[in-house]
Amino acid sequence: GQQLNQSPQSMFIQEGEDVSMNCTSSSIFNTWLWYKQDPGEGPVLLIALYKAGELTSNGRLTAQFGITRKDSFLNISASIPSDVGIYFCAGQLDFGGSNYKLTFGKGTLLTVNP
Amino acid sequence: DAGITQSPRHKVTETGTPVTLRCHQTENHRYMYWYRQDPGHGLRLIHYSYGVKDTDKGEVSDGYSVSRSKTEDFLLTLESATSSQTSVYFCAISEPLGPSYGYTFGSGTRLTVV
Hints:
The complex is a heterodimer. By secondary structure, chain A is mainly beta.
């Protein structure tokens, strides 16, 4: 089956630092999504990417859909304490209306020290 | 807002007992999913549904069954709970997102099997 390798597994940073995490796949995807999970809650969508090479920002977050369609990265600039949580990448290969399953990475646990 | 409600939020049960978790949605989405989340494993798909009475297995379906008798409700049953099923369980729905689809998650059910 499809596998997503997400790295790093965890990060400990100081407030104000920039953060970068990425996902690579053995298969191509048509859509890449990035989710954040706060403690005790379900994952929430941060950014969606639909085209190879696409670069999308959402506030301090920037994500890119790799040219090969097998990778994506997420950057967080000027981190703040509320950025703490688990970040998941997810890839989707849409088979035209019948298969909406996402494949998830194992997550990056981010800790921000004030 | 997809209006997903999971119940209960927390449950402690004894080994060998059956347990049913409920996922309720208010917006008539066709696809629903059950995941479990464990440290080091990320989100793993247990079962999913693509319509009333239409369900299929995910990657970790052993020991679990599901039912969907109404569009709005997707039930996950642990037939005879074991300690290895102690986990956090998330329900998700698939909904249109730009040119593709994304998942919206419930808040999760923390299940402890003693």
